[in-house]
Amino acid sequence: MAYWGKAGRWGSVGAYHPLVFHCLDVAACGQAYIDCQPGLLGQLARWLGLDDTSARQVLVFLLAVHDLGKFAESFQYKVPELVEQGFDPPLPRLTGSRRHDEIGALFYAWLAEEGRLPEQLRGWDADTWGALLAPAFGHHGMPPPTLPPGRGMALAALCEVMSPQSRDAAEAFFAWCARTFLPGTLPASCNEARAKLASWWIAGLAVLADWIGSNTTWFGYAAPGLHGLSLMEYWQRHALPSACRAVEEAGVVSVRPRPYHAPEVLLPRLAEGLRPAQAVAADIDIPAEPQLFVLEDATGSGKTEAALILAARLIDRGLADGLFFGLPTQATADQMFERVTRDVPAWFEDPARATLVLAHGARDQSHAFLRHLAQLDDDVPGEGRSATMRLSEWLAQGNKRALLAQVGVGTLDQALLAALRVRHQSLRLLGLFRKVLVVDEVHSYDPYMTQVLLRTLELHAASGGSAILLSATLPLALRSRLLATYSAGAHRWRADEGQSGRRRRSGSVQLPQAQSTDYPLLTRWSRSLANQAQELAFPSSDHSRRVLDIEYRTDEGQVLERIAAWHAAGEAVVWVRNTVGDACKAWERLVERFGIDACTLFHARFAAVDRRRIQEDVLAALGRNSGAASRKGRIIVTTQVFQESLDADADRMVTDLCPVDVMLQRLGRYRRHLRDAQGNPLEHGCTQDGRPPGPVVVFGPDRDVEPDADWYSRFSRGAAYVYAAHGRIHRSARAIGDRIELPGQFRTLVEAVYGDDAAPIPDALQTAEDRDLGKVIAQGTQAAQNAVALSEGYGGSRWQGEERIGSRLGDSIEAVLVRVTPQGLEAWATGRCGEDEDVWALSTIRLPGHWLPKMEAAVCLDGRLAGMAEELRNKVPALRYRLILPLVEDGNGTWSCTLAGSPPLSLSYCDRRGLQRLSR
């Protein structure tokens, strides 16, 4: 009992928790968790070729030995007083730099190499056990480093950090765990390939169990009088009872769902009648097997409710316990969260215990995880951030909690990080287990995110997860890729690779392909369909059938005059611009003419608290329930944030020229809700909008001239960077013509721009098109390099902290705005939000990555402010990976900050205009 596993806060000498007791605490937590998650146990058993009881025993063994590396002197001497107190004579002082997770892997490699493995392990070969132990040793969120090659190298490395005495102690505990927890015999059905497949989810279990088992609320340090207990006595009397309580109180156990009855019971707002997409979701047959749905329908057609109906039916069939709804942006996640909270808790038998979390944490409805953070005690000097500190940071950043809740709503990034080689990838993957993954606006993701989404789908399908993908419309080729990828993952669900562990040849499984060009369309695939997807066409809703006249303008002055006329008539106008910079310029011109009270600027470059305020104002003015008074004469200048899932509509709309799929999404916010001539909502049952007819204005470069290479960049340099495939922009301009019939032209317009039979690209624009194609290929390659590979197992190289590899390419940097006050630095959101809200999350803002190409060197030019910012970063875990921008008040509501550099970067912020770059 002299080896310590947990010690009191550094400086309080004497208090400690024996290492072997801590190991048993964690094993007990893992056992309690899988006992409450029979689906997880059953899936791991299936992969390992075991019955549930034997699989449970193997998992408990793996967790029990997770901290073997802490037997090393290099770890024990982190607190030399405890070594001197517990050992006479003291252990030899070995202070190598290897972390205890790496030492654990080295220790196992030495046992295997020397033939010292306990007989209980000998049913499986050493490589199989190595694949299973790697995730246990990697319980701090990343796999241990790759071991040195060559016979004898493991022992040589081990001798630097671990004496023979400690190796003997570790070996004795390892052998006791094998005798105690492993089944008497292990069938030969498991092999390295099967173990590697299971390892990804075992890793998440190890992280979660270690976190719960490190919480001193549930696992206080054993009093000296308990040190005399045998391991079995401690296991039965203390570890197991404490673990059952801990798992229950941690809020990580799913609540049982109520039976599904009908859509109007599930979602009471549908009592007035179902739209076609919702009706087909309610009627389609759902077999008892994991499946993928792809729903394509016009914006405003009720896809969200259709997805919720499908998700509830999947849960009712026993195929899932909860859901995660992934959206493109925080703004869309905010609004979706409000929609989900209205109804989803009532799906469960105990709504108060069903955890419902907003991904970026500004408005959590469950604080079960955060209650105990102050009690966590796992920080070890010299070992970097321990499990406690890392997980404290991970949880303190609210956008990372959603996947562990039974129902999560957030940005899709949080799900995509389950497929990337980043810290806590495995915990996110575990969080997705037995959840319906719903992805909205699938068409809106760039090539990098699309490739990571494909890998996420493969992982999710491999674990038996179901997914629902929503889009206004998808190119046929992308729909086929989504189907094929999910199918490939699903064929691993039953460990189809067989006992040999060899991967199936790519041609041995025929993958499904999309065929139908009907619209709207619901596509479904499950394994029983083999290589055929079920494609169901259904009628479009009455409101989505409309004809839009297009007025194409190349002169900004004419656009402004159009807006002026609409404003004078009291109509609500929205101008959707392609970039924040272009939106700011247009807003300034409109404010000069109509005043600041009439004109609202809404884009992504606001602090979260201000962006939320503006979004709420926009929804109050133009949302579903808005009326003539709130809409009268309002002018909203906005960017992509308006077009993505925002339930608002414009009386009149201007849009910059953009790719046709993006334009169709924007047009979905044009007269989205039926209104009378004054803009008041029409009663249910009315089918004709009463507002006077008029065109949608598209503002862009001349589409009737032969373009040169600068055709689009002359119109807007920023837009030319954002939408770099200028040939497809030209195709879009030509394809929309002077009139669009919806929804009939949804599919044809997209194929006219992206399809194999699209019109040739003008020669002058081919260079830009080729450059963009190269970028697409590079993004796909980078995504493949950053993503995990199922067949490799949990391990390997190229793992990074979350600040190094992202779910999106480096086009933005997350920063936190802080005000400089006489008392010091305070979060920008202080005084602007509720007392219970996270002021740091609400003070975040995103900067374009090209503003700060070297973020590591981004510090405030003022040395005093730079020091204050660094001191704040060390105090607040949520700020560790965020750039801090100390703002000094300039007057007139503006604040400024200058970052060091060559040249310096000067920034200005106000809550009406947002963040602006003044120089560089």
From TrEMBL:
Transmembrane segments: none
GO MF term list: ATP binding; endonuclease activity; hydrolase activity; metal ion binding; RNA binding; RNA helicase activity
Example of a GO biological process term: defense response to virus
Keyword field contains Phosphoprotein: no
Domain HD Cas3-type: 12-212
SMART domains cross-referenced by the UniProt entry: DEXDc
UniProt-listed Gene3D superfamilies: 1.10.3210.30, P-loop containing nucleotide triphosphate hydrolases
SUPFAM superfamilies given in the database record: P-loop containing nucleoside triphosphate hydrolases
InterPro entries in the record: Cas3-like_dom (IPR054712), CRISPR-assoc_Cas3_HD (IPR006483), CRISPR-assoc_Cas3_HD_sf (IPR038257), DEAD_box_RNA_helicases (IPR050547), Helicase_ATP-bd (IPR014001), Helicase_Cas3_CRISPR-ass_core (IPR006474), P-loop_NTPase (IPR027417)
Region Disordered, residue ranges: 495-515
Domain of life: Bacteria
Alphabetical UniProt keywords: Antiviral defense, ATP-binding, Endonuclease, Helicase, Hydrolase, Metal-binding, Nuclease, Nucleotide-binding
Family classification: In the central section; belongs to the CRISPR-associated helicase Cas3 family. In the N-terminal section; belongs to the CRISPR-associated nuclease Cas3-HD family.
PANTHER family the UniProt entry points to: CRISPR-ASSOCIATED ENDONUCLEASE_HELICASE CAS3, DEAD-BOX ATP-DEPENDENT RNA HELICASE 47, MITOCHONDRIAL
Protein name: CRISPR-associated endonuclease/helicase Cas3
Gene source species: Pseudoxanthomonas taiwanensis J19
Phylogenetic placement of the source organism: Bacteria, Pseudomonadati, Pseudomonadota, Gammaproteobacteria, Lysobacterales
